[in-house]
Amino acid sequence: MLSAISVENVLRNASGWIDRLVGKLEALERLFLSRRRVTDSYDPSDTLRVASTMGEAASWLVFLGDDFDSYAEFLSSARPELGGRIDALRDAIAELGKFCREAAESVDEILEIGLKVAAKSDRRSVEVTRKLYESYQRLREALKRLGRDCGYVLRSKKPGDRIDIALLANDVANCIHVVGEEMAKLRNELEKGMERSGLCYVARDADPWLADLCKRWSGYVERNGDLYMPEDREALVGVVMDGRASFRVGSSTGHATHVYVEDGGVRVRYYDEDQPVNEIFDEVLSRYCNCRSLSDGVECWCPKTEEVKDALARMLSLVTSMDIRIREKGFGKELEFAKRFVWGGGA
Questions:
Q1: CA-atom Rg of the chain in angstroms
Q2: 120 in helix, strand or coil?
Q3: Does residue 1 belong to any structural domain of this protein?
C-alpha cells in the first residue's frame, strides 16, 4: 500500500471538493423548495440536475477514498494516537460515496418512470429503497465512531417510505458536510507539531537527511516550475515523519514516491505505471543506487550520502509531468535532459 502522499494537500483539496459539492446540493435543495412553493410539479431538468449532482458527488468520493487509502496506513503508524479516527474516517468516506450513489439512483427512478405519468404526489418524491436505507444506516454507523451523525428526514424513514427529493438532497448535503468537517479536524491534528518549508511538512522527530532531501526537492520544483502541467504542480507536497518521507509527485492517483531509512542507507520506492518514465528514473538513479524496475514503478537502495541526496531531490523534481514532456519532445531528449540535470548538477 502507498503511504502518506499528502498530509496537507490532499486533505485540503478534498475539503474543497466537499465544500463545492455541498454548495451544489444545498443550492439544488433551495431550488426545489422554492419551486414547490410556487408550483405543484417539478421540471424534469431540475430532477436530472439533482441526480447528476449526487452522481458527481459519488464519483468524487471514490477518487477521494483512493487517495485517502493510499496514506491512511502510514499515518496510523506514524501517529498512533490518531489511528482510530483515521480508520473511522476512511470507512465514512467509503460509505458516503455508496450512499450518494444510491441516492442518485433513487432520483433517477423518477426520470425512468416519467414525470408526466407519475401521480402529482409522486413527482417530487422518491421511494426509500432497501439499498438506500441500508447504505444510509452503514454511513451513520461509520460516523458514530467519530461521535457524529448526519441527515435529518431519512432518520425517521423505513424501506418503502417516500421522501421529498429536495429533502433527500438536503440530507445528502448534510452528510457530505459532516464528513468534510471531520476531514478538516484531522487535517488540523496532523499539522500540529509539523514545520512547513516550501512544499514540505516536516515533523519534529524527522530524520535530518530526509528533511533536507524534501527541502531540496521543494527548491528544485520551484526552479523547474516551467516543466510542469498546472494541475500536477498544484498537487505537489512532501511529508517527512521519523525515518520516512513521502512525496506526492503528480496529480494522478497514486503518483508518489516514498523514501525510508534502512540498513544505513535509504530505500526509495517510486510509483508510476508509465513505463518510459520508469525507465528514465531507473537509468538515471542507477548511477548512484542499486535499482530495479517493477510493474508499477521503480525500487532503489541508495547510500545515505550528500551526493545521493542531491541527485534524488533533482530526479524527484523531474518525474512530475515527465510523461507529457516525453510525448511532446521524445524519450531520448527527456532522458538526456534528466542525465544532464541530475548527473551534471546543472540548473
A1: 24
A2: helix
A3: no
Q: Is the pTM of this model over 0.85?
A: no
Of 2, 157, 7, the C-alpha closest to 82 is 7
Sign of CA dihedral 334, 337, 249, 243: positive
Phi/psi region, residue 75 (left: phi>0; alpha: psi -120 to 50; beta: rest), is: alpha
Mean pLDDT of 186-192: 68
What 300-303 contacts at long range (C-beta under 8 Å, 24+ apart), as own/partner pairs, is 300/267, 300/268, 300/270, 301/262, 301/263, 301/265, 301/266, 301/267, 301/268, 302/265, 302/266, 302/267, 302/268, 303/264, 303/265
Q: pLDDT, tens digit, for every residue of 129-164?
A: 999 999 999 999 999 998 888 888 899 999 999 988
Q: Is 72 domain-assigned?
A: yes
User: Which domain covers residue 159, as residue numbers?
Assistant: 9-191
